[in-house]
Amino acid sequence: MGFVIAIDGPAASGKGSMAVRLGKALCLPVLDTGLLYRAVGVAVEQAGGDLDDETQSAAAAARLDLDDLESEAFRTRGAGEAASRVAVHPAVRAALLDAQRRFAAREPGAILDGRDIGTVIVPEAPCKLFVTATPETRARRRHLQLRAQNDPVTFEAILDDIRRRDTRDADRAAAPLRRAEDAALLDTTDLDIDAAFDAALRIVEASRGRWETS
What we know:
Blueprint: E1 3-8, H1 15-26, E2 30-32, H2 33-46, H3 54-62, H4 77-86, H5 90-104, E3 109-114, H6 117-121, E4 127-132, H7 135-148, H8 155-171, E5 184-187, H9 193-213
Helix pairs in contact: 2-3, 2-4, 3-5, 7-8
């Protein structure tokens, strides 16, 4: 395994944007694993299925193409809610596990962000970050993003959605959201995007230095 960076955190914490920026800075491929679950949720809904049906959701996960994740349909607020619902199914997580680990095994390394990267997907990753912020901060950032896309959703609705997803992600039986014991905590509540990236890059460079000399 090359130098793998595992980035975990709750919804709207900014971990996806951070992963992309780190990928560009370090010339490493990036996998937003949340998109996998969004794609599964969207596929189930488009087929007229039931997001709470594990068999239907697992079948959609088994058909998923990792090279076909660019649809804007996967980036809507509804897709995020669907992802949170299908992600509770152990069979869905099992169907996507090998694909994520194959991505992580790329040389000279890779960056993966999600909910269980450092705890389940690649617990041996030499660099782990847990990116978070208060629910109110995350809701405010998501609200500004959606307003820029002319989405009329209210701040209160987004905050309720984030709190509901936090509870579902933390309480699910399969790979619940939690910080790995050896993950560096990065709270971005009081940081803008550039300051958060600079802090993440310092953590990554320190981890890479230890990994290269180990």
